Amino acid sequence: MQALPYMLAAVIVGATISTQPALNAILARAIGSAFVASAISIAIALLGILAVLAVVGVERIAGDTFTAVPWWVYLAGLAGTVFVVGGVIIAPVTGALAFFVCIVAGQMIGSVIADHYGAFGLEIREVSVMRLLGIALVLLGAIMVTRW
Asked: Cα separation of 32 and 29, whole Å?
């Protein structure tokens, strides 16, 4: 399977997501609450995925499926909450570009740690100088987009 089409799709997803903090910030200003705006955004996301499921269908899920994974696996949804609320509060202050460069830097730091320890069943990929250099370049990018 070629990765290039998926990488291009990820770029399109990223470009789409880049609009979310600014749009949510407009909503937050109109409503007067970053948290209510975030709740509305997440509720609309829920409706969106329910619409997708209605179109593509979903196989019947056995009740014990939900207990087949550890309870903490379901906390993944909170990551989306942190992202949405963080975007509403942080992006208007930093600008969209600095916000997302810092998001990417944080994702890279978290990912290199997860890879190094094989967290959550990932294959172990030890920290290397090149990986750390890549993170350093993204952090340098974060500095560059906020200073110049």
From this structure: 5
Alpha-helical runs (H) found in the chain? 4-17, 20-31, 34-56, 76-94, 96-117, 129-147
Question: What is the C-alpha separation between 11 and 22, in angstroms, rounded?
Answer: 18
What range defines the domain where residue 72 resides? 4-147
Task: Report the distance separating Cα 6 and Cα 22, nearest Å.
Answer: 26
- Alpha-carbon distance 79 to 86, whole Å? 10
| Tens digit of each residue's pLDDT (9 = 90 or more) over 75-124 | 999 999 999 999 999 999 999 998 999 999 999 999 999 999 999 999 99
In total, how many domains does the chain have? 1
pLDDT tens for each residue of 113-134: 999 999 999 999 999 999 999 9
The Cα–Cα gap between 140 and 125 comes to 24
CA–CA gap between residue 132 and residue 116 (Å, rounded): 12
> Cβ distance 126 to 117 under 8 Å?
no
